[in-house]
Amino acid sequence: MATIWFKKLRTLLLALFFCLSFSGTSYALQTGSLAPDFELPGLQGTVKLSNTSGSLIYVDFWASWCGPCKQSFPWMNAMQDKYRSQGLQIIGVNVDAKSEDARKFIAQTPAHFTVAFDSKGVIPMKYGVKGMPSSFLIGRDGKIIFQHLGFNAADRDILEKEIKSALEAKK
Q1: Which run of H or E residues covers position 135?
Q2: Which helix (H) or strand (E) holds 61?
């Protein structure tokens, strides 16, 4: 019983930490600014943003305790499957303190895209993330095209339109 209570308390504190640490003092990146590079451990090895140059990248910051994140995974899977051949790469950056929490989430909600782990929350701070999930569309030139906070059914069309527009811009 104490273990369950401790896990719930830890989850609540982690959520509170993200709410407080990403509000007020850090700012989201501006459209047109260069996306900060990162190198993180991932499900299939090291994930490094700069290794994806020439691709359109959708970076999504997520956590296992985030309800909207669970909704966004099927959509991101569909986008990755639909636009992979046109150069879209999705990278989901998990911010859970323990990667085992993320792995449990992925076991229940599989990812058809690259997953990286940032248990210390360093990269979300560089990006000025203010909540979960937060996503950044990064152009083939490495610059931020679009950013979005949250996820719900109404966001799907808006986000896909941004992806399609960025993919067509290369033609």
Answers
A1: strand 134-138
A2: strand 56-62
Q: Tokens in use for 55?
A: 């691709």
> Whole-prediction pTM value?
0.83
Dihedral-angle region of residue 24 (phi above 0 means left; psi in -120 to 50 means alpha; beta otherwise): left
Is CATH 2.60.60.30 what the domain over 2-169 is classified as, yes or no?
Answer: no
- What's the pLDDT score for residue 151? 96
Question: So where are the chain's domains?
Answer: 2-169
Round to whole Å and give the CA distance between 134 and 98: 19
- What 3-state DSSP class applies to 42? strand
Q: What is the pLDDT of residues 72-85, one digit of tens each?
A: 999 999 999 999 99
Helix (H) or strand (E) holding 115: strand 114-117
> What is the arrangement of strands in the sheet containing 134-138, beginning at the earlier edge strand?
45-48, 39-42, 114-117, 88-94, 56-62, 134-138, 144-149
Higher pLDDT, 115 or 3: 115
- Helix or strand or coil: residue 144? strand
| Predicted local confidence at residue 30, as pLDDT | 87
**What pLDDT, in 10s, does the model give residues 31-65?**
899 999 999 999 999 999 999 988 999 999 999 99
